[in-house]
Write a structure and sequence with these properties.
Elements (H helix, E strand, L loop, with lengths): L1 E6 L3 H10 L6 E7 L2 H11 L3 E5 L5 H11 L4 E7 L6 H7 L1 E6 L4 H12 L7 H21 L6 H11 L4 H8 L3 H15 L4 H11 L1
Parallel strand pairs: 1-2, 1-3, 3-4, 4-5
Helix pairs in contact: 2-3, 3-4, 7-9, 7-10, 8-9, 9-10
Length: 208
């Protein structure tokens, strides 16, 4: 059984949402709340498995963060969000485990709460795609900002260093100047924090 807390500012909205779960054998509404203070009091009293939170103002991420801090085991479902809402990422960072869009039907709301109650993450495809795009962008930014990351050319040179080629041989192989190879080798040793050419490949493998 999933114990559910419903958080929404408007009373008839809270009561309407509660009725959605009357016929759901796997979900029990244990409390409703109109604001952060009431939500935290309900969490302290009931320790709900899921909090269904209407995200109808800019304070929603702060409310979600307060809920997850009060009881880490309470998983939050954000209700009434648009696919392209600017707070999608902020809500994910605050700890939201599921999203229900503003045009979702009642049975969809119930299904998502049930899934999140089972420990799954649940959100519409467009929101999932937006979250994945954001994760990929952050990963690229971290890689680009990493001063120790080797360039594609430097990785080519590490492979040739591992084969025992000299600077002159590497220059010939890559059709570049010997001085350019020397500069690359210097940068490689510095980035990988090694002193010898022969250590570069082993150091790179350790970092992958």
């Amino acid at each position: 059984m999933t114990d559910l807390l419903i958080v929404a500012r408007v009373r008839f909205y809270r009561e309407g949402l509660a009725t959605l779960f009357d016929d759901s054998p796997g979900v029990e509404v244990v409390a409703t709340a109109a604001d952060t203070a009431q939500a935290l009091a309900a969490i302290a009293a009931h320790r709900p498995d899921v909090a269904l939170v209407a995200v109808d103002d800019d304070a929603a991420p702060t409310l979600v963060r307060a809920i997850t801090r009060a009881h880490a085991e309470t998983r939050v479902v954000a209700l009434g969000i648009a696919d392209d809402h600017p707070d999608v990422m902020a809500l994910a960072e605050a700890g939201v485990a599921g999203y229900v869009t503003s045009d979702a039907a009642g049975d969809e709301v119930v299904a998502i709460v049930e899934r999140v109650g089972r420990g799954e993450a649940a959100c519409p495809p467009r929101i999932a795609a937006a979250l994945l795009d954001r994760v990929a962008l952050l990963a690229r930014e971290r890689r680009d900002q990493d001063p120790g990351r080797l360039t594609a050319r430097e990785r080519q040179i590490v492979v040739l260093l591992e084969r025992g080629l000299s600077n002159k041989q590497i220059a010939h192989n890559l059709s570049i100047e010997v001085t350019t190879v020397k500069n690359h080798v210097h940068n490689i040793l510095e980035k990988l924090n090694v002193d010898r050419r022969g250590e570069a490949a082993a150091a790179l493998r350790r970092e992958i």
